[in-house]
Amino acid sequence: MNLFPVKARFALAIATTFLSLQSAFAQSPTERSSQLVKSMSLDEQLAIVYSRDGGGFGAAAIPEGALGSAAFLKFPTRLGLPNLEYSDAGLGVGDPRHVRAHGVVVSLPAGLATASTWDPDMAREGGRMIGSEAWRTGFNVLLAGGADLTRDPRNGRNFEYAGEDPLLTGRIVGATIAGIQSRHVISTLKHFAMNDLETSRMTMSANISPSAMRESDLLGFEIAIEVGHPGSVMCSYNRVNDLYACENSYLLTQTLKQDWNYPGFVMSDWGADHTTVRAALAGLDQESSGNTIDSRLFFGNALADAVHKGQVPQERVADMAQRILYAVYDVGLPDHPPMIGPIDVAADMAVAQKDEEEGAVLLRNAHNILPLRRGMHVLVVGGHADAGVLSGGGSAQVSAIGGNAVPVDETSLPWPGAPVYFRSPPLKAMQALGLGPVTYESGTDIARAGNAARHADAVVVFATKWSVESIDSSDLALPDKQNDLIAALARANRHVIVVLETGNPVEMPWVNDVEGVLEAWYPGAAGGQAIARLLYGLANPSGHLPMTFPYATTQLAHPDIAGVNARTVFDVQFHTDQELFYDEGSEVGYRWFDRQHQTPLFPFGFGLSYSNFQLDGLQLHPGSKSLSASFTVKNISQRQGVAVPQIYVTLPDGGGRRLAGWQRIVLAAGESKTATVTLDPRILARFDAAHDCWRIPKGNFTVRLAESASDNGSTLVVSMPQWIMAP
């Protein structure tokens, strides 16, 4: 028997397979997705432009093959692609119905805590952690990457985001996305765009000039895309200049896909699609969970009919499908499908703890009350600090390992339910350090707590305020008489430290009566341990505020939120604003305060340390189309610490100062380092909407080396020529 032909055919098959695999790896995601979409029928293309309800909410059934979460997409079998399993959210892997036995996951601290690190490497590490957990729990799409700016410090979802500045937001959120996608999980960037309030979010029109939008909110998204390359951008619920964001061609096509050359796909937020033809032509590529969430399925049979009638070109459907496939190939889903298995809880807790230790912001430290000294009798009061730490609510909620530390009967509560506390009690973490006696009072009896405070060397009071998706706060006050509690403790003991667990700034009428204030944000699944280490000096605070803390709402660009307390359908329809005019334009947060010459309670960029630093030697280095700044930072204390020198620029034509760059620098005791920061040219520019370009104006730019947005620091003036940049 002649075996040569058999052997030859076998060798040829092996070689062909090898070359095919080699070709697949050599091809770019654009080439692979373009080739595949050309082989797909119209019906196959239409089958992937809407996801199905994944059974994660309400009473919806879990589709076959789905895990029970936000959405699910099964590709046509012949394509050989893994199912898409979508999960909330940006702080960890959600499990809203508690249907997954393998759903034990770790929550990062609030997005504001990560932003407060001013550390893209930390953000990337946190992204890798939650991306890995998603992959290990069977998910390959995370609805993460919240990048809406803080235009109002009462917004119920600010805790998910990264503050009020577009440069800081873009770099931190972009790094988080890059970390997630390094684990072969698609991340979204959301909510595109101007979804800056929860009140009337389904109908509100955010009205703002295109130029101002490009210099603020959209710039944050643009930078996040450059840094993180998200597979998908999620369009938001609200209207922008009267058009729903998910059918707004200026946002989705002109800006995102044309000006920024974005190659991925646009998915709608859940319930944010309202039309078929308008949305498809405007640039929406995938309707999310449309079979149950939207009023009807707009991208199913309705889209097929629109194509057959010539209302939507078939080429547009092919483009929608190609963009989805591009995201699939770009993160390597076909070659790295999720592998369900146990997560390394201890390692992931360490990441969450590190994030909180870097992100907590020390706001006040009178008489160096912190770090707490060995042997002190410390009284801990309030905030359920004996049980756990508070987390923010809504779709970003991560289930608490072991259950809610402060259990509530939620059977009769509508969504978003009750506050969830992670089982990481600061009290027990402080006691476990063994550095002195630590006792506890709940704080519900103010007189009793005050009496106990008289017998302590120091008092640490935990003050909390819950933030939650769909509900804005009506004020900046601490609820439940917590201000009265803090004031009473301060009268009873001169050494009071307030630890804030909040998702937004709060008013502090007692700030000058206490010695310490630590903003811990929502500190995540390992928050108790992180807070204990910060209080006792085992970790050195290095966080800096990513948002301005006003004295009161009267300092805000929009002091009132009309209908903020609306809860009924009638109130939402008739007692809330449906048009919000952002007359402040791009002057968001600290820019607004600077332009109005207002002094905040605590400025953007502010943060104390147990170390002290000196900034010196500012020099500017202008190029023909660039500007950089160099300076020296010295640790003038006896302890290693982290400095975050910041560069702010005021344009020749005025307006509020703008953050143009920063560095996070680790310095040993007595150490000096010289740093150079390249200023992002878009921060130096005005956006010319009429000609769709950036224009750096000719004239004198004022450059400041500072420790916060209110610090004038070292100032130099540099003359720059005019130049133009592509959009």
UniProtKB/TrEMBL annotation:
Family designation: Belongs to the glycosyl hydrolase 3 family.
Matches recorded under SUPFAM superfamilies: (Trans)glycosidases (SSF51445), Beta-D-glucan exohydrolase, C-terminal domain (SSF52279)
Name of the protein in question: Glycosyl hydrolase
GO biological process terms held by the UniProt record: carbohydrate metabolic process
Keywords: Hydrolase, Signal
GO terms for MF: hydrolase activity, hydrolyzing O-glycosyl compounds
Acetylation in keyword set: no
